[in-house]
């Protein structure tokens, strides 16, 4: 938890360093952290930030997950906040290429994030610059249909055999069978992956 608080504090530092409006007394944050735990964490962080910086008023625009995914395209171009959360890697690439995100290498250096978050640095780096600060992670689950796997002589699914599994899945895909799905929210939100 301490690690996450330091990372969130670095996000606030990034926003205040990058934003002219933060110096004029307002820091605008757009997030989709509407689930109970991240919402509570942001509420606590904002309260602490405002207590330490009474001359800065924080405006937090909280979106639901799906609404945020469609809104970000609009608010980044029309009325960009000082701080926004988004996904790393290729998901942030269009916004970086469009000039809608600012590099934050200075925030990484000033807060020791190159060392403490070294394992996440590659996912935040495009063209040699870091474009964000990771503040959370989430689990992914792989669900499979045993009946389909057993019909195709795939009797053993072992962790660490991703390449073997990919070849078999492509074979199944050629047979028009879809035995695996990907989910970040259990069976509430399921994505077919092959």
What can you see in these coordinates?
It is a single chain. With 194 residues, the protein is of the alpha/beta class. It folds into two domains: 2-130, D-Maltodextrin-Binding Protein, domain 2; 141-192, no CATH class. 46% of the residues lie in helices and 15% in strands. The protein is built from ten helices and eight strands. It has helices at 2-18, 20-23, 36-52, 65-78, 93-97, 105-110, 113-116, 121-124, 146-151, 162-174; strands spanning 26-31, 57-62, 83-84, 125-126, 129-130, 141-144, 180-183, 190-192. The chain has a three-stranded parallel beta sheet. Strand 7 (180-183) and strand 8 form a beta hairpin. Helix 1 (2-18) crosses helix 3 (36-52). The chain is elongated.
Q: In percent, how helical is the residue content?
A: 40-55%
Written as H for each helix and E for each strand, in order along the chain, the element string is: HHEHEHEHHHHEEEHHEE
**Total strand segments:** 8
Classified in CATH, the superfamily of the largest domain is: Periplasmic binding protein-like II
Strand arrangement, largest sheet? 2-1-3
User: What separation lies between the terminal Cα atoms?
Assistant: 36 Å
**What is the CATH architecture assignment of the largest domain?**
3-Layer(aba) Sandwich
**Count of alpha/pi helices:** 10
Low-confidence stretches: 16-23, 153-160, 187-194
CATH fold-level label of the largest domain? D-Maltodextrin-Binding Protein, domain 2
């Amino acid at each position: 938890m301490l690690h996450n608080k330091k990372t969130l504090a670095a996000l606030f530092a990034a926003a205040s360093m990058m934003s002219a409006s933060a110096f004029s007394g307002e820091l605008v944050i757009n997030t989709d952290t509407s689930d109970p735990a991240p919402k509570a964490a942001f509420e606590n962080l904002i309260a602490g930030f405002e207590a330490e910086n009474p001359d800065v008023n924080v405006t937090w625009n909280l979106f639901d997950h799906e609404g945020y995914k469609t809104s970000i395209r609009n608010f980044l171009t029309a009325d960009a906040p000082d701080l926004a959360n988004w996904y790393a890697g290729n998901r942030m690439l269009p916004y970086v290429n469009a000039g809608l995100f600012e590099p934050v290498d200075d925030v990484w250096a000033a807060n020791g994030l190159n060392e403490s978050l070294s394992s996440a640095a590659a996912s935040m780096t495009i063209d040699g610059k870091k474009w964000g600060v990771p503040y959370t992670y989430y689990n992914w689950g792989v669900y499979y249909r045993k009946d389909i796997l057993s019909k195709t002589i795939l009797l053993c699914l072992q962790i660490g055999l991703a390449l073997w599994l990919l070849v078999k899945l492509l074979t199944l895909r050629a047979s028009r069978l879809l035995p695996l799905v990907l989910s970040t929210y259990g069976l509430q939100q399921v994505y077919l992956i092959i």
